Amino acid sequence: MQRVFPAVVLAGILSLSAGCGRHLQPLLQPNQPPSVRFLPTRVVADLPRGRTYSVSWQGEDLDGHVDHFLVALDPAQAAQAGSGWTQTTAGTQLLTLTTPDDASRRTPHRFVVCAVDDRGARSAPATLQLAADNIPPTVQITCPSPGGYATFVPEAVRIEWDGTDPDGATGKPAQYKFILLSPFTEFKADLAYVNPDSLRRYYANHPAGPWAGWDSTSAESTHAVFTNIPPGQTYVFAVVAFDEAGDYSPAFDFRTNMLELRSGPPDALGPEFTVLAESFQYRYRDGGYSDDPSRHVPLQVPSETVVPIDWFADRPYGNCATIRYRWVLDPASLDDPTPRSDEATDVHHWSAWSPTTTSANLGPFGSGYPPKREVHRLYIAADDGLARSLAIVDLIVVPRQFVKDLLIVDDTRLRVDMEVNGVLEPPSGAWPTAAELDTFLFARGGVEWRSYPPRTLSPPGVFNGYSYDTLGTRGLGSVPLSTLAQYRHVIWYVDGAGAQLTHSITDPVAPMTLLRYMGLPGNANTLVPYLQLGGKLWLAGGGAANAVSDGFNDPSNDRPPINQTKTYSHFSSTRHELDAGRFMYDWAKWQSEFRILQIDGTVSGAPYYNGVHKSPGRFTDTPKYAELPDALEPKSPVTDPLVIEAPTRTAADFYQTRMFIEFLQVENHIIEDVDPDPGVEDEQSTLDTLYRVASAAAQIPDFDDPFDPYHRDLRRQPRYPIMTYYHGPKPIGASVIHSGFPFWLFQRSECTKLVDFVQHDLWGLNRVAASPAPAAGGEARIHPARRVTPATRAPLAQDLPHTSVWMLR
Would you say the pTM of this structure is higher than 0.70? Predict the structure, then answer.
C-alpha cells in the first residue's frame, strides 16, 4: 500500500553532515526510492526588510515508508560556511529571508528537500526558489527531456522550455536568457558540467554586468534553435527565467534548466519513420531522404481489399520541432511540385503538408479477371523544420487464387531423426518425434516401415485420403502470401515446447518457430492478408497462440511466473499484449484473456469434471456439431496398441499425457453484424466453443481476489474453452479454428473424427480412397527428410500420398 508521510509542524532540527547526494546506509535488497514534492508556499509575515514563508512538502514511498527528510537552505553556501544539511521528520518549516544591502546583487535563495525511506534510499532533490520579498520564477526544459545525462543531437537542434512565476501577474516569467557553452567559450562547457552552480555565480557577478553574453527572449518565446553545430564536441545549454521584480530562477541543474549535448554526424538528420499495417510494423533505423533500394519496405497485400497504412516519425535525437507529413502513390516523379486536384482522390501527386496526415487507405488493387499481380509504391515524407526523411513501401499485390484445397504447415520443433555412420538411430524420448508425427498424420498405411522390424506395417495416417500439400518451416524465413493464396484452407500446427524457443530463425539446432518469427514486432505475418482474402485457417498443436503472441508478452501477469506458464490479457495496460493489432485478438477473436499451461495426467475423467469435452453451447442439441467426438481421451493399450502404433517404443514413451494447452480463462463473447447489406443489421454470435478443458492445474489460487473484476471467479470455473471456431461474416468470410492442444496425443479414432469434422463438416472436403502403396521399397519412416546429418538434409520422400511445397528437415 502506498504510504504518504504527513506534513507536521517542525519542532526542531538536528544537525546532520550527510547530504542528498549520499546514501545513509546500504540497501538490503532492490528498493524503489521515495519521492518528494512541495506543497503550496504561504507568506506568514511581511517584515520591514524581508518576509517569512511557511514551506511545506510531502514524501511518498511505494514499497515502504519515508523515514525522514534532509533539508538545506542554499546548500552550496551553507557548506562553505561550515553548516549543511539537517535531518527532520517534519513536513513544514518557517523561513525568514532578508533583503541584501546591495539590491543589484540580490540572489534568490534555494530551499532543497530530499526524502529518505526506511532502507536508506533517497529521492531526487526537490528545489524551491524564494527571495526576501518575492517568489522567483522557475524554468524547466521540456524537449529534449533533461535527465542528467548527455543528449546526442545532429548539427541542428531545437530546444524548448516552460516557465512559471507563482506570484506574477500572468503566472509566467517576464523574460528568459539562455546560452550554449562549448570547449571554446568564455566559460567552458566541462566546468559547467562538473559544477553547475559555478555557471550561475560566474555570470550573475560578471564584470561586464549580470548575464553578459547571454541571449534574451520574451515571455512568449520559449525555444531556441542552433544550427551548424560542429560535430564531435560536447556542449552545455542553460536557460534562466526572470520575473518583473528582477529575480531569476537560481536552481542550476541538469534535471531542470541545463542540458549536456553531444553533436553527432550529419547523416543522422531527419525524423525516424515507423510504418504500420495490419499485423505489420517496420521501424527505420535512421532518418534520411533517399530513394535507395535499401530503404524500400516490401509488404504483401491481398487483392481486391482496401489496405490501411499508418505511420509516425520520432524526433531525431534532440530535435523538438513539430513534424509534418505528406504522401504519394506511384508518382511520375518525386520532385513533381504539382498540387493535388483533389486531396481524397488524386493520390498520384503529393498530398498537402500536415502534422495530422498519418494514415492512408489504399486500393483496392488487382481487381478484374484473370487476377493480376501488381506492385505499387507508396512514398511518405516527414519534415521537422530542419531536415526531411522518406519512407518507401512497396505494396506487392497478391491475387486470390484458391486453386487448391489444402496446405498443411508443419511448424513444430520436434526431435528429428539422426544418422550415425550411415545408420538411422531409433526414435527415443517422449512420443512423437518429427518422423513419428508425420507417420501418424500422413502415412498411406499397410506397408513396411523402413528401419523397423520386418513385416511391421504402418497404420493409415489421420489425413490419409484427403488431397493436400505439406510445408515444413525449418530453414524458412517466411511463407509468402503468394503461396498461401493458392489454397482455400490452411492447417498450421505448432508444438507447445517449440513455441517456447527464442533462438534465431536461422539457428541450425533449435530455431524459433516461423509463426513466432512472423508475430514479432517489425515482421510481416502473411496469415493476415491470407485471411483478408477469405482464407480458412486451423491453428493447432498447443503452441500456436503462444508462438504468434509471445513477442508482446507482458511477464508481469504470468502466474505462476515461470517460463512455461504465460497469460495474455486484454486487461494488461503495459504492452497491449492482447488488443487490436494482435493476431489472436483480430482473427481468432480471443479478445479477453488466455493462458498457456503445461499439464500432466489431467486429460481424462468424467464430463464436466476433468478432461477435454465437447461444449458447443447454443448448438448442443442440434446436428450442427454432432460429429465432434464427445471427449478427447488419452491413448491406452486397448485403444491404441503399442505393437501397431509404435512397435519399437516403450509404454512410458508412447502413452503421453503431459502436454501444453492454450485456453480462454475469461468470458469472451463475439457478436457481429452478419448481413453484408449496410442498411440491414443482423447481429449474431460468430465465435463458437467446440471443446472445453477441465483441469485442476488450470486453476490459479492466488487470483481469488474479491476486488479483481476479471479473475475473482476463476477458481469457480473448472472448464475453459480450448477449441473455438470463428466464422467471420461476408464479404470477407474468413474463418479461424483454434485448438489449443496437440490433437495427436489423443486416441487415433478420436483424432480421425476431429480431422474429419474440420475437413468435411466445416470445410466441405472429402476423404477419398488412398492411392495404392508402392510396390517395393516399403514406406519411409516417414520422411527421409527427417533423417538429418550435421552436413546434409535429404529431400522429401516421393512415395507419400501428398505433394510437398517444401519440406527440409
Answer: no
Q: Assess contact for 729 and 673: CB atoms under 8 A.
A: yes
Say whether 549 sits in a helix, a strand or coil: helix
Give the integer Cα–Cα distance in Å for 602 and 599: 7
Rounded CA gap, 674 and 769, in Å?
37
Distances (CA, A) of 768 to 321, 340, 415, 466: 67, 59, 31, 6
Among candidate residues 355, 162, 360, 191, the one with its CA nearest the CA of residue 249: 162
Residues 113, 38: contact at Cβ < 8 Å? Answer: yes
The pairing of strands 272-277 and 215-218 is unpaired
How far apart (Å, rounded) are the C-alpha atoms in residues 115 and 60?
8
Q: How far apart are CA 11 and CA 370, in angstroms?
A: 90
CA angle 267, 268, 270 (to 5 degrees): 105
Pair 311, 271: CB distance under 8 Å: no
Q: How far apart are CA 584 and CA 687, in angstroms?
A: 13
Q: Is the peptide bond before 731 cis (omega within 30 degrees of 0)?
A: yes
Answer whether 748's CB lies under 8 Å from 635's CB. Answer: yes
Pairing of strands 223-226, 234-242: unpaired
Measure the CA–CA gap between 247 and 707, rounded to whole angstroms.
52
Q: Is the pLDDT of residue 518 over 90?
A: yes
How many CB atoms are located within 10 Å of the residue 390 CB?
19
Residue 771 carries which side chain, given as an amino acid letter? S
**CB neighbour class for 314 (10 Å; exposed up to 12, middle 13-18, buried from 19):** middle
Q: Which of 197, 51, 27, 188 is nearest to 125 (CA)?
A: 197
Q: Which pLDDT belongs to residue 15?
A: 35
CA distance 508 to 792: 11
Our CA angle for 22, 127, 319, nearest 5°, is 95
- 38's CB contacts (< 8 A; 6+ apart) are 55, 56, 57, 113, 126, 128
Q: 146 CB contacts (<8 Å, ≥6 apart)?
A: 254, 255, 256, 257, 258, 259
CB 93 within 8 A of CB 71: yes
Residues 6+ apart with CB under 8 A from 522: 281, 282, 283
DSSP-derived secondary structure for 177-236: EEEEE-TTSSS-HHHHHH-HHHHHHHHHT-TTSTTTT-EEEETT--EEEE-SPPTT-EEE
Instruction: List the beta bridge partners of residue 296.
Output: 392
For 2-44, the pLDDT digits (tens) are 333 333 333 333 333 344 543 333 334 567 889 998 888 888 8
Between CA 546 and CA 346, with CA 481 as vertex, the angle to 5 degrees is 115
pLDDT tens by residue, 505-515 = 999 889 999 99
Evaluate the CA torsion angle 446, 449, 455, 458 in order and state its sign.
Answer: negative
Q: Please name the helix (run of DSSP H) or strand (run of DSSP E) that holds residue 143, with its range, or none.
A: strand 138-143
CA 306 to centroid of chain Cα atoms: 25
CA distance 96 to 686: 73
In the three-class reduction of DSSP (H, G, I as helix; E, B as strand; rest coil), residue 702 is classed as: helix
Mean pLDDT of the chain: 82
Beta-bridge partner residues of 375: 396
CB atoms inside a 10 Å sphere around CB 152: 14
> What's the pLDDT score for residue 319?
59
b/e map of 207-218 (b: 16 or more CB within 10 Å)?
A: eeeebeebeeee
Residues 6+ apart with CB under 8 A from 550: 499, 502, 516, 519, 566
CA distance 796 to 143: 59
Residue 755 contacts by C-beta under 8 Å, 6 or more apart in sequence?
Answer: 462, 463, 743
CB within 8 Å of 421: residues ≥ 6 apart: none
